[in-house]
Amino acid sequence: MILMLAGLVSCSKYEPEPLNNVTEDNVWDPLDKNGDFAKQMLTDIYSYLPDGYNRIGGDLLDDASGDAVPSRFTNTVEYFTNGRLNSQNNPDNCWTNSYRAIRAANDFLAHIDIVPVDATTKQYWKAEARFIRAISYFEMLKRFGGVPLIGDQVLTATDNLQLPRNTYTECAAYIVNECDAIKPLLRVEPVADSDIGRITRCAAMALKIRVLLYGASPLYNGGGLSSDPIMKALTGYPTYDATRWNKVVTACEDLIALNVYSLPTSYTSVFTARKNTEVILAKERAKTFDVESNNSPIGFSPATGLGYTSPTQELVDAFPMANGLAITDPTSGYNAAAPYTGRDPRFAATIFYNGTPWLNRSGGVQTFTGGLDRPGGTAVQTRTGYYMKKFMADFSTQTSFSNQDHNFILFRYAEVLLTYAEALNEVGRTSEAYTQLIAIRKRAGITAGTGSLYGLKAAMSQTEMRLAIQNERRIEMAFEEQRFWDIRRWKIADQVLNGTLHGVTITKTGTSTYTYAPLNVSTVSFANRNYTMPLPYTEVVTDLNLLQNEGWQ
Amino acid sequence: MKKIFLLICTFMIFMNSLYAQNKTVQGQVKEKGETLPGISVIEKDAPGNGAATDMDGKFKITLRGKSHILIIKGIGYITKEVNADIAANLNIELSADVRKMEEVVVVGYGTTKKATLTGAVSSVSGDAIRENPSASLQNTLAGRVPGFTSQQQSGQPGSDGALFYIRGISSYTGNNQPLIIVDDIEFTAAQFARLEPNEIESLSILKDASTTAIYGISGANGVILVTTRRGKIGPPSITYRTEYSLTQPTKIPKFLGAYQTAQLANQAAINDGTAQPYTAADLEHWRTGDDPYGHPDVDWYSTLFRKYSYQWRNNFDISGGNDRVKYFVNLSMLRQNGLLNDFPGGDPGVNNNFYYNRYNYRSNLDIAATKTLNVRVDLFGNIGEQNSPYVPNINGIQNVFYFYQSYLTLSPFAYPIKNPDDSWGYSYLQPNRYASPNIVEALTLGGYNRTIENNMNFNASGTQKLDFITKGLSIKGNIAYASTLSSSRTLSRGTYPAFIYNSTTGTYTPQNANVYRIGFYGLSYSPGTTVRTINPQASLNYDNTFGAHHIYALALFNQKTLLAYSDPNNGSRVFNYLPVNSRGLTGRVGYGYKNKYLFELDGAYNGSSTFSSAKSYGFFPAVSAGYNISEEPFIKNNLKFIDRLKLRGSYGLVGSSDIGGFQYAYIQQYTQSGNANFGTSSNNYAAIYEGRLANNDVTWETEKKLDLGIELSLFKGKVTSTFDYFDNNRYDILTTRGTVSALFGQSLPPVNLGKTNNKGFEIEVAYNDRIGTDFNYKIGANMSVAKNKIVFQDEPQPSPTAPYQMYTGNSIGTPLQYHYLGFYTAADIANPAVPKPTTGVKAGDLKYADLNGDGVINSFDESYFGYSNLPNTIFGINLNANYKTLSLSVLFQGALNFNVAGVRESIQAFGSNFQQVHLQSWTPDLGDNAKYPILSAAPNAISNPTTPSDFWNVRGDYIRLKSVQLSYSLPQAFADRLHLKNIRVYTNGTNLITWTKLSSLYDYDPEIATNGTTTNYPPQRMYNLGLSLTF
């Protein structure tokens, strides 16, 4: 028996631990000339690029910008507009993911030289990782203000992690410097079709433009609301400096001068074509129809829409008529009894209104009271009488959805033009800003009109021009996660996000006749502390040197 | 199966009658007038010929030899030899052997006498276990054994085993389940649950360091030791036992009918200011029931569930033996059916109900191979078959009880079961309901899921006495093999037609326009997991007494290899069939002087291959001592009423390698997962990322266990009492650091840094006495308290304004919740000084305390308080009375200091069907006397049960009449006439009556899982009737 036992004990030959794991040595392999695994590490870093669409608990971030409300009640995106936001429940908390991206990039940069891939590829890869690190900082900067800068360090568990926040100035300078440094190292446009979606030279320039734009904007350019000077330096430039706008102008001109990008003639194709002349950088996604199924009207079968997004009347009213004139302009031709006719073509590309042709239904979308897409009862449906249509492919004559390109655009040329116009106006070159607005309006399909001004008022003052640019940005880039941040940097959120948001009640009075009545859909509030988001509570209690933003616990 | 049993029974009766030859002697064995059962009577010339006395102390033996001398012996009595020829009917008087009468206690790798035991052990006998007819073994232990906490969360046939712990829990990340050893083989909780009570001789629970340290790395959660029955010398004793039980849920919520439900739905709409969903005419239809198709009102409880389900159990065992071979053979079957009604119309032979069939077998053989070599060969196992209906998946939950409870699947007016034309009914009466099929139709036509599990075990050992080297030395080798194989088969279909009948027009509309016929069955088979354990052991044992000195020692080598997909006790630990080896040396040295001063050292040096080699082995020593004060002359001579007064104490280290989901945490993994897209043709590129960092130092949890005990026995054993105090400090609990900022950018490895303290006491008191000669009784009570506390877990200090959000310092599982103050009144709403959440709160919503005083109710106002779901106090009260062969035993069992919360389908209006409590929802008149916040179809989050608060998280304290048994042995004369040794009829039951604080809000059994969206199959109450025949 003892011998038997001894036999049993001794003949157990097994590997002592699981061998089916990828290890550090596999990934950073000095023999891997193709960089097979290193490439996959970089791919993972790409997955940290900011995302969009229905990412906030199933809703769009723009549902908290006044442009829309979530169709589902008590959804987390409303925390931004109903005062419930606090440091424990921020539904748009990018902190952890940003620092994960920064570590992944630093780790990549620290090890990639082990892998013997060719020098050019390695140069691109490193610059791409640095770009994602930079944009990760910027995502935090626009939410929280200055955050701890890690540099190139790959932290270990024994390192001091009680890091203080760097100032806004330091963070912005770091990002801009990184953009400048990697610009010559990145791929130069045009890139091969198979490389669409990779970070290019102009992406770094576009990021720089956006960082400079934010820094020049009222909230950050000495206009911070903090009473404490330390806090003010953390959340913006402490003092106003008009030359910050000049830097924006220069940066825009640098990019425009390269003449790489242009506005394609079709506005909708910008969002539905993987490759086009306008997109500078997009988060590439697999082909899906999630945007359609999440946001399109609910009354269609079998191509079910969930109708999660309800654009507000405020956004609808921001769209001018096709002649470019605002609907408040008595000469615009706006008819309150037929409010959706004769509007800026971008309106129909952005909003489902009562009658939008969709999925081959006779008469189109029905958002009149009791209509198929607004049946009443407790089903999730539009709260405003509108659904979001932007980004969707044209399904007006199909009967079901099919997979589509839905890359989420991070930078596009129209934004550069709008930024350029804004900066020109701010530096006093108001008359020069017309060119950019006209280019955008022309592409949108607005008629040239008197003096080929595309409905713009001639000889606007700086203030008038500022409002025109703000409105153009709103409608041109609706639902692209711009407005949410724009109303903050312009410091107008406390005006536009305090009060009541509206929709419309449509009553069917005949076969195709309707009456329209305004409808209060949501009461929103915006306290000044909301201009900067709270640092995550778990961070403030673990890193004791982190100062929480003012007004937050 | 039934037929086989009858056949075997008939055969055994026949065999029995063969013995009626030669000279037969009979007699009765007594001690001081009291009859002694279980005494061996052996013929001296023919050691293989023996008998045992029955319940009345009587025996009968047919002599084969010539001397006619009988040896009468029994444990605790002085052996006596008697000449059988002196009388036709022998009356034999035995005297107690004071030295040997001591109770024997099973401990790890051996037995010891209770009097000289220095550790904390509780035992329960197989007989006591059999008083409870429950199918799962652990369910019979609640209230009987101090220190044993259990929580039965499900009553589903085949899965009704309770969760159980010894002395509460100590780890917040690791597994707290005790080690289970059945005759030297380590069992999983599932295997343990399937053990047949009829096979059990005794069950011990080892609680302190001195008794668990020998298990080293796996003993920290306590140990359950099960000893099975073995053969005794004597002619074959054949027992056939059959039991039939009626079972019903202890508690299941019964919902309001359609009329009240509709009224409440309308009330909610009034509260919300929305249109009322039901008109006065609708209500009138429901009130009068005059439109059963247009306005159905179905009592789903009586539709779905039968009043009683049954359990049928048969046991058949043979035991006996001679001085060479002893045997115990047992065959058992258990059959349970389910709570669901039988619905006619299904396919013949397709059983869609719940059921469970189990067949247990055991053959325990003891062979005296030579005079000094004993061989033991045990073969045992069970085959189980569990069935459950295939119910469509609704919201990711496939559970008929979810259907039953959910308002959105099965409101009282959901649909008529059948239409007037006998087609299956359906309706769209409820807005926004889940797309669930007609439940009765699903249960009739949907199919089933069936799992078959085969548990096979083999255990062989040889003990060689080495008295030729030195007296009292022996060597033992043991090899155990345990395996479990399972597989499941699903026969299901998803489409079956149902029609909406319009009672006004008499027309039928299909529920789904694409389905007019019954679909085909789909068949799927999945091989379940295979678990294989090989466990060889070798030990050297020494036990000798030199005058007043008693010395004993054990040295043991133990190796265990587990081959399984995942840890059978913890599915999150995935091993992928990479063997998990544990190996080690165990030792024990003890010394006793005159049974007065007792001293023992225990220890184990063992390890597990789940840790890196440098950290895989640990040493776990324990020391214990006992002092029998009652052996001192000053007590022996002066305080004669004291039989025993013992003080004992133990202290030591024990480990737990069952560290939760952190297997192989010493390996840094790079994970191949995720992707990104590039290119115009949307090429998907694979990604790899750096995974959680490795910690090369990950190792087991260790517990320092201190136990101090007093054992007392007074008045010749009439009063007995045991008291134990324990203080366990567990440290090195694997914890992910909480104070590290996310700036680090990567998940951190677990580190052995957590500390908890678990202390408490156990007290057990019993009194037994006799009135006259035929009536004796015993009253016992026990109570156990185990309070744990998290001492350290690297938690960050909360913000100074919310210091109460510190989990450390609380007991494991303490909820983070709001404190309920009352309901908001209209005046509160109007008053800006009353703290409120930032949105939409109205009168009748729950008002919580504003702990940080900022005037806003938000997550910063939650604090850790209240009790966890695991009771920290348990108790049992046991009453036994015997009059001649009539005996009664009653067990009350209770648990205190735990909280239970229900969410969504278990309580929330419009999630759950409406319950009585919703009738008492808030109105201005009820105010704070309301039992439920204001009814609303879209309640404010603050009033939702998913927002944790002490309004929803209520005390579950309960006391229940756990089991009662009344047993009667028929007169011997009657049994003799049937050639039977004994006939016993008995009735018993379990979970008979429950009183619980939980009923202040919930209509559930108090042991139900907390925070469940829905209840499981509810635990069952059983009424059992049994018959036992001994041949």
List the SSEs and their pairings.
The complex is a heterodimer of chains A (553) and B (1031).
Chain A: H1 2-10, H2 24-27, H3 36-46, E1 68-70, H4 79-82, H5 95-111, H6 119-144, H7 168-182, H8 201-216, H9 229-235, H10 243-258, H11 269-272, E2 279-283, H12 290-295, E3 309-311, H13 313-318, H14 345-350, E4 351-352, E5 387-388, E6 408-412, H15 413-426, H16 430-444, H17 462-476, H18 483-489, H19 493-496, E7 499-508, E8 514-524, H20 537-542
Chain B: H1 2-17, E1 23-31, E2 34-35, E3 40-43, E4 50-52, E5 58-63, E6 69-73, E7 80-83, E8 89-93, E9 104-107, E10 110-113, E11 121-125, H2 126-129, E12 148-151, E13 163-166, E14 179-182, E15 185-187, H3 189-193, E16 200-206, H4 209-212, E17 223-228, E18 234-249, H5 258-272, H6 280-288, H7 300-304, E19 309-321, E20 325-337, E21 355-368, E22 373-389, H8 400-405, H9 407-410, E23 425-426, H10 439-445, E24 447-465, E25 473-492, E26 499-502, E27 507-510, E28 522-546, E29 549-564, E30 566-567, E31 570-574, E32 580-593, E33 597-608, E34 617-628, H11 633-638, E35 642-656, E36 670-678, E37 683-690, E38 701-714, E39 719-736, E40 750-771, E41 775-792, E42 816-817, E43 820-823, H12 826-830, E44 846-848, E45 863-864, E46 873-883, E47 886-896, E48 899-900, H13 916-919, E49 954-955, E50 958-969, H14 972-977, E51 982-996, E52 1020-1030
Parallel strand pairs in B: 1-8, 14-17, 23-26
Antiparallel strand pairs in B: 1-2, 1-5, 3-4, 3-6, 6-7, 9-10, 11-16, 12-13, 14-15, 16-17, 18-19, 18-52, 19-20, 20-21, 21-22, 22-24, 24-25, 25-28, 26-27, 28-29, 29-32, 30-31, 32-33, 33-34, 34-35, 35-38, 36-37, 38-39, 39-40, 40-41, 41-46, 42-45, 43-44, 46-47, 47-50, 48-49, 50-51, 51-52
Helix pairs in contact in B: 5-6
